[in-house]
């Protein structure tokens, strides 16, 4: 049995690094801003290293700062460890559970093994994946993507901070001393399986009154950065027909992408919208950059939304005044994923044992997770627990202590089931 | 006769302070970024003070940093000076002529008087008005507005930097030592008349092949800051119907304002669009702030565009998901203006003498100018000269040396005509 109080204490202990966006007077009533590879992230990493080493784990840091902590099993010829993985980085206005719960619960599972003198058959351990959020360096699940061979290492290294192009993943890893010797790949550090506990981040479990989601896979998504170029001009003296107004065009593009996605039952969202700092009320700006995030459980629908959007964008670029230039880059491409049937069965069994067969449901993840990447290289699945009103990527993101504990217990039992398999 | 070469040299000499946005290799092929009450603006102000004092002018700085340089006329009982005024501040991506030409040409007129030993009947002088652009502190023609009694002094003092709320007009005036003793009002420093030379900033003169615009007045305009509040949410797990997405709503509002203005032959423009710095690709942002600039020669049409826009905005705020909150503030309100018939006649005469009656035309200003404010308190008009392709508020803004010189000569002759009246 995991220790529910210790789990809570540890979650909030680690949230001292990067606590932000207070919304209430209680000690834990803040959100988090612990962007990947910042000083706060480094503090959380140091905690992770110390804590797992205290539990007798051996720790490996790979070339991208992924941290693998492994506890020996009984078997004499060691096999790749059964991993419980998630991430300690957060969104800039994120909460205390997204990613954090998965890593801290995994540490709690190891603590429970340790204090009960429980020996697994295989090696079992925890992974802290670098830059899952893609918030600071705009490629989500970055380091698990490199580990899985989906993203070239050099491409990840050269990713720049979204607001400060002078800073890259590599320069921050170097600054913090987090470039390890081991290759970031499934050959460099193979895993036997990957289980990830995570808050659902959506409303499905809460609405259905269920306690555990057994995750079948993840929906597809793609991220783009769209750049619209126009020409500075005076707002009072420049007739509409003489303008080349990127802000008007970008607005039309965002409206169009939303309506295209809606018509196909998909999602299209813009989270970042930037103009040059030298902008003013009475000047048409020269350039707009915005992000576009397209999602659907079916790869083909993501394709379709994408091509309809870019057709519409090209059309909009010609619509007003002298027109604008539009260009885009693909930043993240995460196809639809199906998780491993054996892993899923182990989680189903754990869930039924804990909450009965009526207490859980099958679910497909709306968000990307490191598990989407690991599933390309090792048997993988995830366990979801409900979060209040399905809210995440928000300071008030909340998962009750009972649900955190239930999730951690389900994680423990899934791993034990899999280890026995 | 003004000295055309000296005029050019002086324009570009003063553009050493705040030169920015190089677009060619020539020494003058840069734009300007000399925002009001920055260190660069202070350097230009010091040049203005020294130069006018060298010409024997007495210099007065009022409470808002407006600079009045006055040269004695022949009359024994002094009357309020005939002013030639404009501004030395620029847009963040502005050019070398907007405002600057008007002030430097006025200094050139005084130099021409001085070297010819020409004595006017009345006192004649130059005004450098503070924060005409409204680019940094978002109220255009701010200090002439206070002088004219249209804007309360305290309201101007408390205006904050559009990107740094900790800095205000007052704190910057204090920092630079530019709060003078004289009241900023037409009682504190009365003017007998106000003539302003300015680039047209539009394409009308160039298209008509005319050299001088005799300005009849200015079109009406209003500036608003619109704030749209929503709620952070995950872009992958939050169904469209559960969202409160201010970025989508703001985009729709900008598209709507453009189409409303278009349908009424008016202008509506958004130059500034801001989201919180803690934004990311996979998070719906919590707040968007954007500016709206509505213009038309007729006050009633500006009214109409405004009310249609805000009706549409309220409607859009309810359209998607859980809706958003929309609020706005009025930042600048500049009604349509008619300039003084006597002043206009003096400019018409000067223009006819210089380029013949076919060489100039009557024109209404699309942009606001300090003259719009002074015209409420003293006889006022303006002289326009063409600028290349009507481009301004852009680094490549350009007025040929010949047109600059012709404008300065027209300014001189208009003032002489008026002085003799
Ligand atoms: N779980 C999560 O928020 N991951 C970030 C990648 C995504 O946007 O889906
Ligand atoms: N002339 C000029 O650009 N003035 C600033 C006020 C306006 O936007 O019209």
TrEMBL record, chains A, B:
Q: Which SUPFAM superfamilies match?
A: Bacterial exopeptidase dimerisation domain, Zn-dependent exopeptidases
InterPro entries from the entry? Amidase_Cbmase, Bact_exopeptidase_dim_dom, Peptidase_M20
A Pfam family hit? Peptidase_M20
Q: Which family does it belong to?
A: Belongs to the peptidase M20A family.
* Identification of the protein by name: Predicted protein
Q: Which domain of life is it from?
A: Eukaryota
Record-linked Gene3D superfamilies? 3.30.70.360, Zn peptidases
Q: Which UniProt keywords apply?
A: Hydrolase
Single GO MF descriptor: hydrolase activity, acting on carbon-nitrogen (but not peptide) bonds, in linear amidines
Q: PANTHER family under this entry?
A: ALLANTOATE DEIMINASE-RELATED, PEPTIDASE M20 DIMERISATION DOMAIN-CONTAINING PROTEIN
